[in-house]
Amino acid sequence: MQIFRLYQINKVLLQHGLDELIPDRWMPWYARLMRKSIFWIRNRHKGQPAGVRITMALQSLGPVFIKFGQMLSTRRDLLHPDIANELARLQDKVAPFPSEAAQQIIKDALELHDLSELFKEFHIDPLASASIAQVHAAKLHDNQDVVVKVLRPDIRKTIDADMELLFSLAQVVQRWLPDGKRLRPVEVVTEYQKTLVDELDLLRESANGIQLRRNFEGSDALYIPRIYSDYCRHNVLIMERIYGIPVSNVDALLAQNTNMKKLAERGVEVFFTQVFRDSFFHADMHPGNIFVGTETPSEPRYIAIDFGIVGTLNKEDKRYLAENFVAFFNRDYRKVAQLHADSGWVPRDTNIDEFEMAIRTVCEPIFQKPLAEISFGNVLLQLFNTARRFNMVVQPQLVLLQKTLLYIEGLGRQLYPQLDLWKTAKPFLENWMQEQVGLRAMMTKVKANLPFWSEKLPDMPDLLHDSLQQLKALPLQQQQEHQQLMALQVNNMRATHYGIVGATLIIVSALLPVYGLHWAFPGATAVAGMACWWQSWRKGHKKFKS
């Protein structure tokens, strides 16, 4: 099955001529030989531009590859604009499946004989279509505009096949490549599989959406549409329809005089609020899932959809990340290096001085620079080299966060290239850190634990009295235990002495017959030795029982 899937992937790549995009110097002679002999598969799309061919190939290969293309489409600083524009189609313009199948799925899931039982209107043509599901516009009988998200049929089989192949490749990488153990590819693929499988359950997505909406209730920075949870099933989700401008449509945003600086700053604010305030963040923030409201262009507000992939952080990781960010913003590279060692992200025997210098070399050139002046590709390459040099271990639980950060950074470049990411984020993180440590943090924790202590308060006098009674009896108890210990030690010494004497007498009784003495002498000696052993056993048994 894996070999067939691998052949199928290779076939699709060759049919779309993607091997032609690889420079000859990067392809060894045996790869070129195999291409012309074993894999003699003709490029069927020679007349199409490179971006179109890449997009078509990824779309043919299925959800796992489409997700990869979506992430690449946000990195316009790394790709040619024509390729990035074509890959952007993977965000919401993937080829749809038949609307008849979508209608039947909805009716089966909601136990409807006809869609008119629930919907006043239902649009047959899909509003958008992505890797996992497609969306149809509709209207409920109360005239509320909604969208109906329908999971693609049999999507799980394709994802399982691809994940099985990825697991096999990850195991090979982890076992045979020099950096295999450091990169932890098996754990990374496991984490990725979990997020993909979670995305296939629209009931989970509806719960995520409800949680995010509650977190940002009344927010001026982010709006989350209402989820109609009564009509949600594992393969169908119904949500309030939103009207806004896709965040990737910069021309339309500029045409309505959107405050792009504030929009970019609010994007940073939304990201850090989700991560550090809520520990619950939207982890699929590609441009196809983000819109901008049209009500107040001078005070723009984001609108987010598609909550299938969310990330969480535990308290320890969140604290380490915040401290790292603050140290970065303060250019305290020594602390950054020490934090990495303390958290186990690099080996504890790492030379902190050298590690500090390596971090400074990467970060110092990019400080106080807007996004437009930072070469992300160069920074990424230096970070990879530093990680390899100091044996930095990949943290699978942070992969989703890192992916989301890539989305945010790419979005900021597109919206407002003059954005100073460090200056924007630093006050927020410093304020968060103040809330975690110091007097404010202590008062917050006391307030949070107040119900628990108010419940236990009536029992405190009895507990205090019992503790004082035990404290009063403690000296006498310690004296008794000391006396028992001394008695056991004396008893043990006597048992040892009896054992030694008994062993000596037995040995003597065995030697006496050599000297021709009457049998009574060795016999009496042996009896005395046995008596000593008996006494030693009794003393030891008494000690054991004690």
TrEMBL record:
Q: Which residues does ATP bind?
A: 127-135, 149
Q: What InterPro entries does the database record attribute to this sequence?
A: ABC1_dom, Kinase-like_dom_sf, UbiB, UbiB_bact, UbiB_kinase
Which SUPFAM superfamilies does the UniProt record give?
A: Protein kinase-like (PK-like)
Please state where this protein is localized.
Answer: Cell membrane
Q: Which GO terms describe its biological process?
A: regulation of ubiquinone biosynthetic process; ubiquinone biosynthetic process
The membrane topology term of the UniProt record is: Single-pass membrane protein
- What's the Enzyme Commission number for this chain? 2.7.-.-
- Transcription regulation found in the keyword field: no
PANTHER family xrefs: CHAPERONE-ACTIVITY OF BC1 COMPLEX CABC1 -RELATED, PROTEIN ACTIVITY OF BC1 COMPLEX KINASE 7, CHLOROPLASTIC
Write down what this protein is called. Answer: Probable protein kinase UbiB
Q: Which organism is it from?
A: Salinimonas iocasae
Q: What is the lineage of its organism?
A: Bacteria, Pseudomonadati, Pseudomonadota, Gammaproteobacteria, Alteromonadales
